[in-house]
Amino acid sequence: MMNDSGAKQDPAGAITYNVLIAIRKIIQSIAMNSRSLVKRVGLTGPQLMVLQEVAYAGEVSVGEVAKAISLSQGTVTGILERMEKKGLVTRRRSNFDRRRVLVQTTTAGGQLLESAPPLMQEAFVERFNGLQDWEQTMILTSLQRLVTIMDARAIEAAPILATGTIEESEKTIELEK
Questions:
Q1: Helix count (H) and strand count (E) of the chain?
Q2: Domain ranges of the chain
Q3: Alpha carbon distance 9, 12 (integer Å)
Q4: Among 47, 60, 126, 170, which lies 20 to 30 A Cα-Cα from 73?
Q5: What are the tens digits of pLDDT across the range 99-114?
Q6: Quick one: DSSP state of residue 60?
């Protein structure tokens, strides 16, 4: 219910309205950050995460990268194929187990990482970890409740701040070329 000035009178309605605005701001912030990252370095957040993990680990298997960043091996394989075409990583079969594909960054991949900004989630994790334990628990509980309210429990999600699926964010970068 609105009063003459257009403001909500019902406190519960006002809270709902403000929760929806907060959710929308989070979604927009993630989308804006993703677009900015693509424009600045030509990679999506998931691609940058994969490249960082490969650089950190040295020569590493695709499966190990997937496990380290909580993505499926198929998703990581697709990301690595696109990064190989850009000259950022190299892939080769293991000498000991031909089923195993090993990946490492190239000089160009290393240079890109040096100039890349930190991922949005890195700043989030740092700030979130700075909160009191009770604040972290309260936020987690509230977000889990929102997931339930929004019937989103069945949605598979990786701990990566990106809108849509990882595959959709990969397609976005292809469209922006």
A1: 8, 3
A2: 11-175
A3: 9
A4: 126
A5: 888 899 999 999 999 9
A6: E
